[in-house]
Write a structure and sequence with these properties.
The chain is 65% helix and 0% strand. The protein contains nine helices and no strands.
């Protein structure tokens, strides 16, 4: 299915306010929400989840680690490129981002536990093994942090579903260098 990349001018009227909010947050309108704009309900759900993730207390690096892990797990090239870009901006060394993009564990134990947890959540539809939960606890993740990882996984999965349904949304210029 091909989804048109809408602009603020040609998007459905019911999607414009949400697109304007996303544009204000990013300084530009990313292609993925622009592709979802034909369904104001989907776009509103996307934006609500995006904003909820932003309120999580989980370290922003760990949020992005979870995003990459889910993107790899669900074959979401837009999400992998986006979260890889954000990890670079947050200062995660390139070799650690590369490991995540290959589905391998990063060197940091907490990040590795988050990546493993996120991968299990995505691949097993939330049916997480006791060993993954034990590893998360051993890495210092509280129950709240695990639930915040779950939220990022749900959002990253939605992004992956949109991207995959669309046959891959064209990468924005700001994430294209991290194409996967």
């Amino acid at each position: 299915m091909q989804l048109a990349i809408h602009t603020l001018d040609d998007a459905p009227a019911d999607s414009r306010a949400v697109l304007e909010g996303i544009t204000a947050d990013f300084g530009l309108l990313p292609n993925l929400p622009a592709a979802a704009a034909l369904s104001p309900a989907l776009l509103t759900g996307f934006d609500g989840m995006r904003r909820a993730v932003a309120t999580a207390k989980l370290d922003p690096v760990l949020v992005e680690v979870a995003g990459v892990a889910v993107g790899v797990a669900v074959d979401n090239r837009y999400g992998v490129a986006f979260h890889s870009t954000m990890l670079g901006k947050l200062g995660l060394p390139g070799e650690q981002v590369k490991l995540l993009r290959e589905g391998a564990a990063p060197a940091d134990g907490t990040a590795a536990a988050v990546a493993a947890l996120a991968r299990e959540i995505a691949l097993n539809q939330g049916k997480v093994s006791d060993s993954a939960l034990a590893a998360a606890a051993q890495a210092g993740l509280s129950t709240e942090a695990v639930l915040d990882v779950l939220l990022e996984c749900a959002f990253a999965t939605l992004v992956g579903l949109i991207d995959n349904l669309a046959g891959h949304v064209e990468l924005d210029a700001f994430i294209a260098p991290q194409a996967w």
